[in-house]
Amino acid sequence: MKSWSIPTAAAVVAATIFFSLSTMALPAASAIVEHTFVVSQMTMKHLCKETPVTVVNGQIPGPTIEVTEGDSVTVHVVNKSPHNITIHWHGVKQRRNCWSDGVPMVTQCPILPNQNFTYRFSVAGQVGTLWWHAHVSCLRATLHGAIIIRPRLGASSTTTSCDIYVMRSELNCCWDWWAMDLAVVARRMEKDNFFDYFPSASTINGKLGDLFNCSGVPEDGFVLDVEAGKTYLLRIINTALFSEPYTTDLVVIAPGETIDALVVADAPPGKYYMVAMPNQAPLPDTQTPEPSTRATMQYSPAGNGGKPVAPVMPDQHDVVQSLYFHSNLSSLRDPRHPLPPVPKQVDQHLFITLGLGMACRRGLSCSSDDENDNMILVATMNNISFLKPTAALLPAHYYHVGSNKGDLLELPDKPPRVFNFTDPSLIPIGPKEKALEQTYMATLARWFRYGSAVEMGDSNPMHLHGHDMFVLAQGHGNFDAARDRARYNLVDPPLKNTVVVPNLGWVAIRFVADNPGVWYMHCHYEFHLAMGMTAVFIVEDGPTVNTKDSLLVPDESYLQTREIKASRIDGV
Distance between CA atoms of 533 and 127, rounded to whole angstroms? Predict the structure, then answer.
């Protein structure tokens, strides 16, 4: 998780930044926006070291997809890299179109080296900042880019008016720079259960900034030029969609989140640092070396040529900042852009605990007392760690072949035992913690009738594909239904595709399972995803076949991949 700050009077960000100025009128009719993504491997030099990186079209960040609400998008992916690849369109609803969601061995087989695949999807009913990224272990650190969905011409805007001139800057926040081959990192995590690799630096718009150097020469940093009196819309990629604005000088943003922030350039002309600082839980949690980074906002024409002014940042272990920031978010109360109503009645209640445990390697048998290499560290949902399927689940679900309910384990309504889930003494691995874990591995799934209203509680930055979630409440400690449901915001809760709460806390969400398909639900921390903090949510077709209630028929590009449906994602 990152905390961002700059010393100006309005809300601020920090991130890898795509900068653009848009003054064009938007087209009145919907269009087909087409891109070709050529995935390849190249060498980049930072911190005096050349490192192999996997990129799209030779650039980091990758191409920005700019569309208007209601457009259709076609992306041809040409895989010239040595790795298996899929691309996920993070936050895109993919209404009835799970085929283009881009999750390997869930919605599709991976795109193998020297193969192509075409993604097609619509952005109807969506406006705002989303992003795309590779959905294979670790490679999203370099394979990512922005999706900008602008309102259709004639639709009212919440960011512009006759007396406010809004410049637009697209930001991609806080990506790590790894001075090592990320494919090696991924293989060590997934094959060797090794998680002691750490990033060498952080970036803002692909630039490391002057906190890092090569033989004493500072790395280049991103510079955002602003003009006094103007307002800038910063699209930060790394929170809530359609959120009610409020003033802040600090943005807290977790992996997988996006947020839009208006920054008013009303400080004394000069130079100011934008700082991105990692936020991590205090001891006894594991402490990882996560570097800060910074960019520069400078007024044009420049006021002074001195060193930029740095903001005062919170303590790295101040997890209350995250709770405060996210608790202040709410939905935009605008009758011109009504949001779907919060479901008042709930059909399924799930209580999900997220944690770590030890489990036996796939295909082996061992006991919980084993201390050898047969036991591996895993991440769990209700004490079960996700086991990758050997064939893609979506075609099996659609064609009623291969994997079925007999091959999948249903995600339980609740954990097997009730205890103090947020007890700090259980964080270190040891006998006390081991007696409570009861961990094993399975391909974890949960089935929902079409239109079901689901209430769920969990922690960590959890991303649900194909749906948005109403964030009803959040807090520290254990969730207590009798106490905490009275705090639910059922009027204007934020609507998000990625939900995060502070460490040793909880969040309560509701969503309507109204998008048929097989959808991924997972933690967006890379190591937790690799360790199995994942499940698939299977939404059945509605009551009327071949209508808006049912999954679309896959197109020809997808059908061609069925010839390799038995391929396994044995690496990246």
Answer: 30
